[in-house]
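Hey team,

Sharing the ABC-type hemin transport system ATPase subunit run so nobody has to redo it. Sequence (130 residues) first:
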Amino acid sequence: MATSAVAIRPTRAAPVLGGPPDPPSPIAALDIRHQELVLGIARAHAESGGAAVVVPHDLGSAAAYAHRMAVLSRGAIAVCGAPREVFSASLLSDVYRHEVEVLSHPRTGDLLVLPVGNGGRVDIRERPVG
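Structure output:
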């Protein structure tokens, strides 16, 4: 299983380590407007000197809001850096074991990560890593 972890410019660890833990917030269950709101609040907090760590599965949102990110694969960090350094089609295709394309949004320039469709064909012999 592949997971991406995003650190949105953590400049001070004290607020994270010294304060009470935040409850988990599954942003994937939110509509687009509220996902953008939550990620915007996290980025504003980080830009004001705090720390924010977000673990999304939407790689486009991760790339749009993160200053630095880490991609985890099979329990270890596969790569860490700025979104444009981290997101390559070959790396993400390998990590997710599914071909993806990484494109720039034509208006914003933000990175978009899109799966390459296979017409609905699935190899049932493929077993999930777990």
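The radius of gyration is 16 Å.

Ping me if you want the raw files.
A.
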